[in-house]
Amino acid sequence: MASTLENIRLVLADDHAVVRMGFRMLLEGAGATVVAEADCGEAALTAFAEHRPDALVMDVTMPGVGGLGALERLLAHHPGARVLMLSAHDDAQIPMRALKAGATGYLSKRAQPTELVRAVSQVARGQRYVDPELAPQLALAQFGGSNDPVDALTDKEFAVFLQLAKGRSVNEVATTQKLSPSTVGTHLYHIKQKLNATNAAELALIAVRSGLIEA
């Protein structure tokens, strides 16, 4: 495994320093060079622009704009960026949206270390990578076999829904998503209608049932 990632330059983005350290040790042990680390979506964007790495390895769940929001902004400015998204969640909803938004690859944090090296190697070379454990779920969801109510949300509604389900206020969501509070209010109205929810507690419950947040 020693030379698998030779000459590959990476930026790591995860809000947990211990996780970043583990990733760094594993990936550098496989030959990669980690040129920068970031602890939020905004810092990941800055680090990418400054270092132009071969790949960005980024957690989905981070403070601020979050991984999905950062992915969207990154690809708007750097369409050729290669991004491997990581998540601790097992649902098909987030990987499906990440890949649809343009991520090059997606891997569960529960994967074996060798799988992370393989995923980074493929993504850094511009090849698509999907966690083999999640592939059947994703295929099912893509062909309409999913009965997850969250499927009905647009990408922007989904981003707002995730933040609100975690207990953020409309104003906090407006700040992190760079939207006006009234726009967030409009999204919230549509989200509640689509998910048949009446309050924040019900939104949180739906998010837990969909495997998007921890109970």
Brief digest:
This protein has 215 residues and is α/β, with parallel strands linked by helices. The protein has helices spanning 17-29, 41-51, 66-77, 93-100, 113-124, 135-142, 155-165, 170-177, 181-195, 200-209; strands at residues 9-13, 33-38, 55-59, 83-87, 105-108, 129-130.
Pairing-aware structural class of the strands and helices?
Answer: alpha/beta
> Could you give the count of β-strands?
6
- In CATH's first tier, which class of the largest domain applies? Alpha Beta
Beta-strand residue fraction: 5-15%
Largest sheet: 6 strands, parallel
Report on the structure:
- It is a single chain.
- The protein has 215 residues and is α/β, with parallel strands linked by helices.
- The protein folds into 2 domains: 133 residues, 3-Layer(aba) Sandwich (Rossmann fold), CATH 3.40.50; 61 residues, Winged helix-like DNA-binding domain superfamily/Winged helix DNA-binding domain (Arc Repressor Mutant, subunit A).
- 50% of the residues lie in helices and 13% in strands.
- It has 10 helices and 6 strands; from the N terminus they run βαβαβαβαβαβααααα.
- The chain has a 6-stranded parallel sheet with strand order 2-1-3-4-5-6, with helices on both faces.
- Helix 5 links the parallel strand 5 and strand 6.
- Helix 7 crosses helix 9.
- The model has no long low-confidence stretch (mean pLDDT 85).
In terms of topology, how is this protein built?
Layout: E1 9-13, H1 17-29, E2 33-38, H2 41-51, E3 55-59, H3 66-77, E4 83-87, H4 93-100, E5 105-108, H5 113-124, E6 129-130, H6 135-142, H7 155-165, H8 170-177, H9 181-195, H10 200-209
Parallel strand pairs: 1-2, 1-3, 3-4, 4-5, 5-6
Helix pairs in contact: 2-3, 7-9, 7-10, 8-9
